[in-house]
Amino acid sequence: MEKNCGCWAVLKRGVRGSCKSSASRDSVNTIPRTSLVYDAATETRYLNASNRELYAPNEAQLSSDNPNPSATENKDVCQLLQFTFQELKSATGNFRPDSILGEGGFGYVFKGWIEENGTAPAKPGSGITVAVKSLKPDGLQGHREWVAEVGFLGQLHHPNLVKLIGYCIEDDQRLLVYEFMTRGSLENHLFRRTIPLPWSNRIKIALGAAKGLAFLHEGPEPVIYRDFKTSNILLDSEYNAKLSDFGLAKAGPQEGDTHVSTRVVGTYGYAAPEYVRTGHLTSKSDVYSFGVVLLEILTGRRSMDKKRPRGEQNLVAWARPYLADKRKLYQIVDPRLELNYSLKGVQKVSQLAYNCLSADPKSRPCMDEVVKVLTPLQDLNDLAILSYHSRLSQQGRRKKKPDGTPQVTYNQSKSMRGSPLNTGKQHCR
């Protein structure tokens, strides 16, 4: 067995060897069923090193989410490349500081280069660019996620899931190697850059992320992602979105079951209220999280922002009243877009977010329905800025000065400032 599938045997020995107590052995070190998720944790938390998990660190050792895999499922691990620690050390330039892409609770993510047909390191700028995630020694929570990701490794493949290339397990070293995502995370583009992400790119990203979730939910053995957020949506050079970090993913309800009962994990501001309240997990929990991300895309605001005034810190609570009112919803559009967005697109996205955020999980759409709503929004060209200038022109023709030049009255000016088609700067500080 070890000769034919040595990587799996080594993995199991290594995982057991790192166990610290009998209390945690069955939970932290259990390899999840490979039928659950194909992952991509790479730059995952990468550009977003926030430790906002909903459970306390010691809860990771209290429960097991997934059963042991069957012998037939183990074969998929061998399809991954198995790197030596020295190879990854060389590929990242000895894990030098200037190759760090980011840091999370699990450890650092480094940029590296490997040869195209194998595991050998390559010179910077040649071969294949990869992201190497290195687990901190003795990191209980990170170890659990590492095990989950390796357990999920190659079962699911989709254009909107980040690709896992391989792993390294030597002594106490635990590393994962992923495809490098050129543009980093959606979080980085929405909240950490001065140049606003164009509306067309926002729609493209939302659609790609929706397709990734739909693929997980609608498969023969459904998967609940459980940690959908902007920092886990990675972008390639063409702004194609790919889901990453499946360390918290969970197998969906089995036939006849309505939900999965599990410990509450995730990130504050994104987790569905019924899941936080009861621990009952369904695919509609992911749909709620998608609704939160849609709001972030629409408004340019974070799901939770303690720097904002009281009453505006929780994005869902603040934005919900605007979503149901077509006359007001334009007031919450990201002001940095400066009217460079589709009027109908904003309406559709707002209504979709409102439906995804329904308090009743059964009233939320499934992700296939979300994809259908978002797909035609890519081709809309009814920009708000064009409508705004058209209105100005019409008002100017209705009333002109004697010399024929347009004149806007005080009341007209006041009306335009209060219009849904304004920049919204007075509302979105």
Produce a short descriptive summary:
GO terms for molecular function: ATP binding; protein serine/threonine kinase activity. Belongs to the protein kinase superfamily. Helix content is 33%, strand content 12%.
Give a description of the structure.
- The protein is of the alpha+beta class.
- The protein folds into two domains: 6-179, 2-Layer Sandwich (Phosphorylase Kinase, domain 1), CATH 3.30.200.20; 186-379, Transferase(Phosphotransferase), domain 1, CATH 1.10.510.
- 33% of the residues lie in helices and 12% in strands.
- It contains 13 helices and twelve strands.
- The protein has a six-stranded mixed β-sheet, with helices on both faces.
- Mean pLDDT is 76; it is low at 1-53, 55-75, 405-418 and 423-429.
- GO terms for molecular function: ATP binding; protein serine/threonine kinase activity.
- Residues 406-429 have a biased composition (Polar residues).
* Termini Cα gap: 62 Å
Top CATH class of the largest domain: Mainly Alpha
CATH fold assignment of the largest domain? Transferase(Phosphotransferase), domain 1
Number of helices: 13
Give the total of domains: 2
Strand order of the largest sheet: 1-5-6-4-3-2
Secondary-structure blueprint:
Elements: H1 6-17, H2 22-28, E1 81-82, H3 85-91, E2 100-104, E3 107-114, E4 128-135, H4 140-152, E5 164-170, E6 173-179, H5 186-191, H6 199-218, E7 223-224, E8 233-235, E9 241-243, E10 250-251, E11 260-261, H7 273-278, E12 280-281, H8 283-299, H9 315-323, H10 343-356, H11 367-374, H12 384-398, H13 410-417
Parallel strand pairs: 1-5
Antiparallel strand pairs: 2-3, 3-4, 4-6, 5-6, 7-10, 8-9, 11-12
Enzyme class: transferase
Main location: membrane
GO biological process, one term: defense response
